[in-house]
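in:
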């Protein structure tokens, strides 16, 4: 996706792109490529130019042999106003087009806002932390909604380079909410293969229109490293490496791949920081000293240009290697620069990775009017055990006002509910809903009944540990086995089916055994010590530093628990008290 750099639009914009693309494809720049056919197409405001050509190249396993690979490729340019979309079937040509065309890719922020949505299916991350054996330099995630799989603490030192997600967009061909791949740094998108040219042209026009009227957010993954466009606070460079993205790609030009391997693994840079973001790096490769490279980063739009010069010029013997590095720096965004200010320049962008406190997203506050928030279980009297006391009138004639009674009232009216309180409990309650959702419920009494009680981690530490320890019981087989183990005990009578208390666990055991693979999973921690009033005051930073610090600690505790729950395909909710 390109934007005109000088205001040219429509036919004038297409003319320039057409001429530049033909120069890149055809000799001498294009090498062994032969144009076979070309045509223009105009549909309403969308103007397109299409080239079919034949490309020849030596196979990677026999670069100097007599064998020649021949492929037939397609390249299309579509223009509407001052925006253009170029589609190239030849992978190795895409980077060359991005580097050699006069017009620039649309900005990272524009791509993020228009083409990064929810339900992320694939996410490519690059680390902006210093390389270490204990943490991956880059990683790829696959899943159904990866925005929930990101570690809000450990992944703060990664920036995303590409994502496939569901986008709230109707394509011209009629497809709604498509899954679109987006690489914001390159201004690149990828979708499904269209059925015909008419569908392709209609969809491309939709994509061009979406750049001008984005529907998403410019910060789709706020817990990841932040992209910055101001170098004023960047200082004290301490390391430089070459990290080519091409090392992770299979369909890259063999010569480019060899160049990437050579400079990524054989070069070293010894850094001396300069003023602000500037630095000097003493460069060596394969034990050959090239000299000092003075690097001065400068903002250019939303990107960072690394301007450099040799000081002094390398010796004549090192000139070929110097020229090779000049090509690397001038043509590829491979250089990564690390700063003590927690900034990193990578892939032509500047990011900051500093610890940012994250808020646990799954606080829920429930109305506990009529219940004693400091009373976990009903009092036992008159020879009744716990199973016979939950939700029943107490010896005084008063209703059961314990948190257990609240759980029964909320979950017991439908599906299957079992109390498993005891020394080897899997949860205080387990509920299997009619839609196959398994919920493990852990209830703990508040440490204070004061309406002005403040946030604290201590009321949550034990119950959260119990919840994490018992996550394995969300599995249908493990759950059924645990229910069978407790069946001979008195607590087995604490079982309800669709609102009716039953004598044993036969029904819920059968229900657990029959659960489908991949059934929904949920963990609920009912601990009413935190009130919504305290939560909201802390979130608005309207409290003193000590209270805010305790709330941050509590959020960190629950975020760690959420990661454990997510690892077994579950979500975790923590219920506090209204107001």
């Amino acid at each position: 996706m390109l934007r005109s750099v000088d205001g040219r639009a429509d036919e004038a914009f297409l003319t320039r792109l057409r001429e530049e693309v033909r120069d890149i494809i055809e000799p001498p720049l294009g090498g062994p490529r032969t144009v076979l056919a070309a045509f223009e197409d105009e549909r309403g405001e969308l103007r397109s130019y299409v080239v079919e050509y034949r490309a020849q190249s030596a196979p990677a396993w026999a670069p100097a042999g007599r064998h020649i690979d021949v492929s037939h490729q397609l390249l299309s340019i579509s223009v509407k106003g001052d925006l253009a979309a170029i589609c190239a079937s030849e992978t190795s040509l895409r980077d060359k087009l991005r580097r050699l065309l006069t017009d620039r890719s649309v900005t990272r922020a524009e791509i993020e806002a228009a083409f990064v949505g929810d339900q992320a299916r694939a996410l490519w991350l690059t680390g902006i932390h210093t390389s270490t054996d204990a943490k991956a330099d880059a990683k790829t995630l696959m899943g159904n909604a990866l925005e929930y799989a990101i570690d809000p603490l450990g992944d703060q030192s990664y920036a995303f380079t590409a994502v496939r997600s569901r986008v709230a967009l109707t394509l011209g061909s009629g497809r709604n909410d498509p899954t679109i791949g987006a690489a914001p740094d390159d201004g690149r998108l990828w979708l499904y293969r269209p059925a015909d040219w008419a569908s392709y042209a209609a969809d491309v026009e939709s994509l061009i229109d979406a750049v001008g009227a984005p529907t998403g957010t410019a910060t789709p993954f706020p817990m990841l490293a932040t992209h910055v466009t101001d170098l004023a606070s960047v200082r004290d460079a301490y390391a430089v490496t070459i990290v080519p993205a091409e090392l992770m790609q299979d369909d890259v030009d063999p010569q480019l791949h060899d160049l990437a391997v050579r400079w990524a693994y054989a070069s070293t840079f010894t850094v001396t920081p300069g003023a602000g973001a500037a630095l000097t790096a003493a460069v060596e490769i394969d034990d050959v000293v090239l000299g000092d490279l003075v690097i001065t980063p400068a903002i250019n739009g939303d990107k960072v240009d690394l301007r450099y010069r040799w000081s002094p010029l390398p010796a004549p013997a090192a000139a070929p290697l110097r020229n090779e590095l000049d090509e690397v720096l001038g043509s590829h965004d491979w250089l990564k620069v690390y700063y003590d200010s927690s900034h990193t320049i990578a892939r032509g962008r500047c990011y900051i990775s500093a610890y940012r406190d994250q808020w646990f997203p799954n606080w829920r506050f429930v109305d506990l009017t009529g219940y004693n928030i400091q009373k976990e279980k009903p009092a036992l009297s008159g020879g009744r055990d716990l199973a016979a006391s939950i939700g029943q009138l107490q010896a005084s004639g008063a209703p059961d006002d314990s948190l257990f009674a609240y759980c029964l009232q909320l979950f017991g009216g439908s599906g299957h509910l079992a109390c498993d309180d005891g020394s080897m409990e899997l949860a205080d309650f387990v509920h299997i809903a009619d839609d196959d959702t398994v919920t493990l419920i852990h209830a703990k009494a508040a440490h204070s009944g004061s309406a002005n009680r403040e946030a604290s981690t201590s009321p949550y530490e034990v119950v959260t540990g119990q919840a994490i320890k018992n996550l394995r019981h969300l599995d249908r087989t493990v759950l059924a086995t645990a229910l069978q183990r407790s069946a001979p005990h008195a607590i087995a009578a604490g079982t309800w089916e669709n609102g009716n208390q039953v004598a044993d666990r036969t029904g819920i055991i059968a229900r657990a055994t029959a659960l489908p693979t991949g059934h929904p999973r949920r963990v609920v921690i009912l601990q009413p010590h935190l009130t919504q009033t305290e939560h909201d005051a802390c979130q608005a930073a309207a409290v003193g530093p000590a209270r805010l610090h305790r709330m941050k600690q509590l959020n960190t505790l629950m975020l760690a628990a959420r990661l454990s729950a997510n690892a077994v395909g579950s979500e975790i909710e923590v219920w506090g008290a209204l107001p």
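note: The first strand starts at residue 2 and ends at 3.
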